[in-house]
């Protein structure tokens, strides 16, 4: 008992001693500009975990160790302070932090402070790109930048998305220019997302005109990571992911298929294919003899439930005042949802910066990327995904003894996967970049850049003949998939060179006149070459080399092309007291794509800005931290129409001729296209008005733009008289225009130790066809003067015919029309439905009101982030693969339509409520034509990324010399909300490789 009392006394004494070794610090925190008190400000004692936050009156109180001499004051949107304790209450005044406004952003051939920018540009940083955990950089841009639309072309490994700026620029090429560290790049997806420091989108002509003829579709400026002075580090990141489809359509079972197939054939006056007895006993027969009575779920047979993905990224950085080096290695491997499909990407990059003297500095960078696409040989050309959905269950994939069944007459995609050969593509890109900077005088720097790029490609298609045997006699061949085994080899090669000479001058006069100037020269040259060869009838089915093929079934070919662009450009900026801004850009381009007389074009732009928040009448308006109004006008161009379109080219072919009574193959040549040598640039003119603002000490930021674009002299292939005997040549004829707006906003703050931020962006653009010189480009998506770009073009519908009387009294498309078919509106009133008289524009097909939403939270060692993206309105066609039964006259039946189509077996009320037309082979061609019957609002919201991370902080890390250890879990394309039919995805149709959901776990180690 005495021992317990003694221990209690010692414990109380220690507590008293501990209490006696602390002191109390109090104070009030206010805004330096307004004098108002600030709640939620963080106060900590350096070197300890002791901290407090101010209350609603801006007051704080905390006990710190007796020997503490300072406290740290931190608040989002304000400059941090480190105050010395003086034994009395602290009166703290925090100044608003304009760090974000003073950040340097990349612009064409240079940089500017964010607050000085007068054009419409948006920059996203490494966390926005690498944090998305996408293999392809283009996917990571989806929903990130207002006005930049990313359209995914399926979720297959290695698939690249399409990027467009502010609607559509031209009728031809709408791909933006990609600039990586100042040098043009062929593809943004060649980069490793973990190597990217920032991406800047140049969206209006004042920012893109400096790139002239290549900039009409917008410009993406990519800056890669580089080493910093005095920093040495090693960073390794490993990630493993599991891929599953976001959605998959479903199809009726084998018994239901046969029942519906009978209705399908009898509706058109034919006999039933399957007898009732055959149908009723089919499952029983399948159980005893599956080879003769197959029941194949082709989708589950071919498409795996999941596939793995793994990524490794390793980087080294070291920096001194003379040399800075960052080297990185990246590897990613994504397996496909069916076997023998994969995409591998290998990246190696070394960025070096040198300081030779106070006047001379330079950089030397080398980047290598190798991409390997391995796929099966799809002999039918439809794709494995399509095959998995079109083949009905009544055809067998494999016999019970393991041998491959012939499917439908030798059409067996499982056989193609396992024994049909391969289609492999290997591309290696090698890029070098050498830079020298010489500081002539204070403010004047001369820069020279030389950058070659080599692309070595290889594509091998080995298409193997597969023999299928009888289910009752394995020695009897009943089908083959193709006539013989063939091999095709293709070796494309590209060399490009970019050379630049730049002079940058910066000067400030009398502390108020800020002036910068840039003049430059640039030379771009590209050479393409291709050689290919093929042979057939291989003796050895597992020897994919040309010398094993038959000489008489050989083929070969080759081609080459080159183009060049020479440019002179300049920029001048001036601002007075960082308040009034003007900027002028100009570029003079000459392209080998045009004849000498029309080769050169000049592209100017002008912009201005007014920082209203610097005016005295706004200084006392407390909520406004920064407000700038800006406007711009400019022109940019487009010459992406092929090589030498102004020249008369001879096309060579093999012709069969009689020679002495024998048929011989001779080389023939002829001019196919008319040449017009006075064609020149497409020119786009853009006007933009915008603003940038921050409020509440930079916690809230808002920027917005409205713009109008007009592209003239669009290069179109206008019709020429038939008697000329040549294809239509390119001519400057078209004109399109677009109007739109964008808004971007974000909020950054914290509550105690919880730091959080939210961001939102939305944009809308509408492109119209103003002039096509009397021509129209017709199809389901048409280009018609007065309409929208790629506007839906088809029939107006009036429901389904319900009775024969309705059919006989109405205009119809053809004589096979019956009750249950779609009724089309007779637009011109001529008593019949015709493509020329009754097809009309039905509405735009492009997305409207695209938006993105993101949020980040950090609490102590935990962090969580999310990214969402979507489309507010889009007129989308339900693809025939989604709703049409019996594709190719035999295909599967989607469960989506079962019980919802018009049928003679239905009651009158059921047919009145029917959503889909009757089952018919003779009417399916008319029922599934493009009409408003199949158009729906395709708006959707998709949760693009969810990430939860934890930073491990331990004394053990210091002992291991580790700077950080982070673990995280993440999910891409986690959830989708839309009105699309079940099993459909808003970004791809039912025949495409599905969009995939990826669950990931990763580890990041820093030394």
Write the layout of secondary structure elements.
Elements: H1 2-20, E1 22-31, E2 42-44, E3 51-53, E4 59-65, E5 70-74, E6 81-84, E7 90-94, H2 99-102, E8 104-107, E9 110-113, E10 121-125, H3 126-130, H4 137-140, E11 148-151, E12 162-165, E13 177-180, E14 183-185, E15 196-202, H5 205-208, E16 219-224, E17 232-245, H6 254-266, H7 276-280, H8 282-288, H9 298-302, E18 307-319, E19 323-335, E20 342-355, E21 360-376, H10 384-390, H11 413-419, E22 421-441, E23 444-463, E24 467-469, E25 477-480, E26 486-509, E27 513-536, E28 550-576, E29 580-591, E30 600-611, H12 616-619, E31 624-638, E32 650-659, E33 662-671, E34 682-695, E35 700-717, E36 730-751, E37 754-771, E38 781-782, E39 791-794, E40 797-800, H13 804-808, E41 822-824, H14 835-838, E42 840-844, E43 848-859, E44 862-873, E45 875-877, H15 880-883, H16 908-912, H17 924-927, E46 935-937, E47 940-951, H18 955-959, E48 964-978, E49 996-1006
Parallel strand pairs: 1-7, 13-16
Antiparallel strand pairs: 1-4, 2-3, 2-5, 5-6, 8-9, 10-15, 11-12, 13-14, 15-16, 17-18, 17-49, 18-19, 19-20, 20-21, 21-22, 22-23, 23-26, 24-25, 26-27, 27-28, 28-29, 29-30, 30-31, 31-34, 32-33, 34-35, 35-36, 36-37, 37-43, 38-39, 39-42, 40-41, 43-44, 44-47, 45-46, 47-48, 48-49
